[in-house]
Specification:
With 132 residues, the protein is mainly α. The chain is 75% helix and 0% strand. Keywords: Membrane, Transmembrane, Transmembrane helix.
């Protein structure tokens, strides 16, 4: 994995590790108040970013240009704003970060949709070659 795909996978792995540690901490303390933020870290960080990584890895032509880098930037921005923003909103210390993170997450998915719509594989990614 190289380029944007590798960066998405690195973000995914770091998010998974953070989500696991956070989940263990919540379980040990019996305090699940911030579980919505934990869930968003796992869903946007681990799941979405790993899907993005595999997409860009399997379709390397889609990983070139400005759009995929902008996609990576907005996905990271969404994580950085939304995951800490949710606890702030839960604790009634302001919703601005969570709202901005939500908008960044939506923009990230819209950018990914644009990438997917612009790039179609010339052949099936897992197609067998003749003789194999």
């Amino acid at each position: 994995m190289v380029g944007v795909a590798r960066w998405f996978m690195l973000v995914a792995v770091v998010s998974a590790l953070g989500g696991m540690v956070w989940g263990i901490q919540m379980s040990a303390s019996q305090d699940h108040l911030l579980s919505p933020a934990h869930g968003h870290l796992n869903l946007l960080g681990w799941v979405s970013c790993s899907i993005y990584a595999f997409y860009y890895h399997l379709l390397p032509a889609a990983a070139g240009g400005v759009l995929p880098r902008l996609h990576l930037t907005t996905a990271l921005l969404a994580l950085v704003l939304l995951v800490p923003g949710i606890p702030l909103a839960i604790q009634e210390r302001g919703e601005t970060m969570a709202q901005a993170g939500s908008v960044a997450a939506l923009l990230s998915m819209l950018l990914f949709a644009a990438v997917v719509l612009r790039h179609r594989p010339e052949r099936a990614v897992f197609a067998r070659r003749k003789g194999h």
